[in-house]
Amino acid sequence: MVEESAENVVPAAQAAGKKAKPAAPSATDDASAPTGAAEKTVAPKKEKPPALEAKPFADFIGQDYLPALTQALTDKGVTDLQVVLERSRIAVKGFETAPECSQVVGRWNDGKRQFNVYFFDDNIQGQRAISCADGATTSSTIESFLIDERKITLDLLVSGVVLRLNSQKWLLRN
Questions:
Q1: Residue 49 or 67, more confident
Q2: What is the DSSP secondary structure assignment for residue 135, as one 8-state letter?
């Protein structure tokens, strides 16, 4: 019987004729030896400018939303457009006793066509609604506006109004 000693033991890989992998260098090996890779310096990330929508409500509406909405409606052929931000009661039957809220009011066609976008919380991410009136009448219905959207952006607010007015057949005849 052959006794096994540390000198007689042959790894199975060598016994089968395969070369054994060299042992991984240990942490005690020369730590000051160069690794072959150049040291990488991590550049600080550039800070993104804050989103337009992060501005205070009145600033965002006055500086960004009203000009963008005016331009979009003018591009669709609307003339003599007046778009303003007002704070007043909702002029829809049944809402006479509701508190005042911020409204973007657009009028054109010598005041015969009007739309209102209501911001109940003075926040573009808060509850919103829209109403439309044609002729000398006041709005008879108020509709929720962009309620399925998680994040409201400038482009979304503008396109939402344009789409709604187009569905009224006020912009393009289809």
A1: 67
A2: T
